[in-house]
Amino acid sequence: SNSPMWWMLYDHNPSGAPSGGENLQTGNYQKFAVYLATVAKYAADHWNLHFVSVEPFNEASSMGWTSDGSQEGCHIGSEAQQKVIIYLREELDKRGLNQTMVSASDENTYDGALKMWTSFPDNVRASVGRVNVHGYSYFYGARDKLYDAVHKQGKPLWNSEYGEGDATGLPMAENLSLDLFWLHPTAWTYWQPFDIPGWGMIESDLGKGTTAAVASKYYVMAQYSRHIRKGMQIIGSEKAETVAAYDEKNKRLVIVTRNLDKSQNITYDLSQFGRITDGTVS
């Protein structure tokens, strides 16, 4: 959820508070949870759409959600998040959605996510089924420390949103590699494949419903997504530039290495695999 319903907010504005501060009324913490759980239940009953998880927040610790903003958003601090998470877990369970996880907190940086997660007491962490984070600190931030804190609690971790305006796709490839090397997410999600030049892998005018050029970024992503397939396990590599994925069923290893602008000689140590057959290079 980008924001609770307008009438749940102090200033009745789903873009944020005037100063970017706390905006969800204390008396509406549970009502917000009821609203989210009710939507999830309706989707299951009427559309046969079963949510794996419900995320009540979107970059909610940010003070950038202000009433004059052009996008829905709401600052919700740690104490309020804790209460909403507990209420949401209860409301999902009341509706028989015991298998639907509460995910949190989709903070926009790795350090922000670490700060929020470690601020939660054990009972709140127990109510969270998966930790989500956005990758908008790009090349910076304690990815490894966030992973350690989340993994210690036995929770899966997603990078649930990444995007930037470079159509070459090279910054995306670098950050994807850094995430897989340090963050160990079980899902990595790009912002929108169809969007304005730079942000979109396919240039689009969403208002007019038209598409234009296919950016290099699309083909860069394809080097990962066409070869690293569902069910493969990301395995360790010596350097962050290289992503290695193993298909146990088909005994297939995929290696994707990011180009560092200059020609380079790279050696891969595959001695631990035992028997190696000839591979292909693309």
Automatic annotation (TrEMBL):
Q: What is the lineage of its organism?
A: Eukaryota, Metazoa, Ecdysozoa, Arthropoda, Chelicerata
List the molecular function annotations (GO) for this entry: hydrolase activity, hydrolyzing O-glycosyl compounds
Q: Name one Pfam family in it.
A: Glyco_hydro_59
State the protein's name.
Answer: Glycosyl hydrolase family 59 catalytic domain-containing protein
Superkingdom of the source?
Eukaryota
Domain Glycosyl hydrolase family 59 catalytic as annotated: residue spans: 30-230
> How far does the signal peptide extend, from start to end residue?
none
